[in-house]
Amino acid sequence: MMGWSVMRTQVLLPLVIALTATLFVAGSAAGTATVIRGDAKAGEAIYSRCVACHSLAQDRTGPRHCGVIGRRAGSVSGFGYSDAMKRSKLVWNVKTLDRFIQNPMRTVPGTAMGYAGIADQQERADLIAYLAQANSSAVCRP
Length: 142
Ligand code: HEC
Hints:
Elements: H1 2-19, E1 24-29, E2 32-37, H2 40-46, H3 83-86, H4 94-102, H5 104-107, H6 121-134
Antiparallel strand pairs: 1-2
Helix pairs in contact: 2-6, 4-6
The structure holds heme C.
Heme C (HEC) is lined by residues 49-50, 52-54, 61-63, 68, 71, 73-74, 76, 81-82, 84-85, 92, 97, 100-101, 111-115, 118, 127.
């Protein structure tokens, strides 16, 4: 029994690490980087705040989110972005997404995304972990 539980830990731990999209958001509390780990499962629930306008695979009021990480802001062809977004020169990664989701209108002044933002850093990290994980799910495969 003991052997099994040791083995189970050895097998499960890397699995859990692999399954949890591990994203780090560097904050600066008194100069030290705080590391926040996003929980994709929790992020899925938080994504419900985005689905009024977004979906993973389809453009709606907002552009699709499949492939958003690594994408240049304002670059889904056929989607009618604001000039502000097209000119923002942002590339969406953990850091830029974190900033944008915290306060869209401050990060991209003039954006057409009428959303106040998410103040809670953990919630943002969870949401970004979900977006990363969703990208490798069946919904996002062509
Ligand atoms: C009220 C509608 C609305 C809501 C709610 C909303 N968005 Fe948006 N979103 C938009 C629109 C419209 C755009 C295009 C903005 C522009 O062109 O300036 C956009 C753009 C984006 C972009 C840039 C994508 C790209 O291709 O450059 C990201 C990232 C994004 N939204 C994430 C989110 C997330 C995450 C949430 C939920 C927390 C959310 N949005 C909630 C309407 C919305």
